[in-house]
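Collaborator request, handled under Task 6.
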Amino acid sequence: MKLFHQQHFDRSSILQKGEYEACTFNNCDFSDQSLKEISFISCEFTDCNLSNAQIHNTSFQDILFTRCKLMGLRFDLCNPFSLELHFKDCTLDFSSFTKCNLKNTKFVKTSLVGIDFTESNLTGIYFDECNLLNTIFYQTLLDRSDFTSAVNFNINPEQNKLKKTKFSTNGLKGLLTGYDIIIK
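C-alpha cells returned to the collaborator:
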C-alpha cells in the first residue's frame, strides 16, 4: 500500500489507494468518488466536498473536517477501528452513523439534518450550535453528551440512554415531543 506522509492536496480529483498520514486536503472535490479502502490518519480536510463518496472500509483516524460538505455518507460502512472524527462548520445532512462508536466527537456549528445515529455510542459528544432536524436517535448511548446549544432535536428518553446528558431549558421540548403535551 502506497504511503503519503505530510503531503498537501489542492483540488485533487482522484486519490490513489493508500495510506494518507498527516496530510491536508484543501478545496478538493471527492463527491461521488470511490474512497474505498483508503486510510486517512491525522488528516485535515478544509473546504472539501465528499458528498455521496463511497467510503466502504475507509479508515478515518483523528480527522478534522472544516467547512466541508459531507452529505449522504455511510460512515456505518467505514472501517470501525480507531474511528475518530471532528466537524466544524460542516454539512453532514442525510448521512448514516448507525452503530458507530463516536465517543467524544465534536460537532461544531454543523448541520446534521436527517442523520441516523441508531445504536451508536455517542458518549461525551458535543453538539455545539448544531441543527439536528429529523435526526434519528434510537437505542443510542448519549451519556455525558452536550446538547445545550443544539436545536431541532427529538430524543425519546425511553428509547435512548441519557445519563448526565446536558440540555438547556430551551431544549427540553426536544425530549418531550413524544408525550403529546403542550409546552409554553
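The cover message to the collaborator said: "The first strand starts at residue 2 and ends at 5. The radius of gyration is 17 Å. Please let us know whether this matches your experimental observations."
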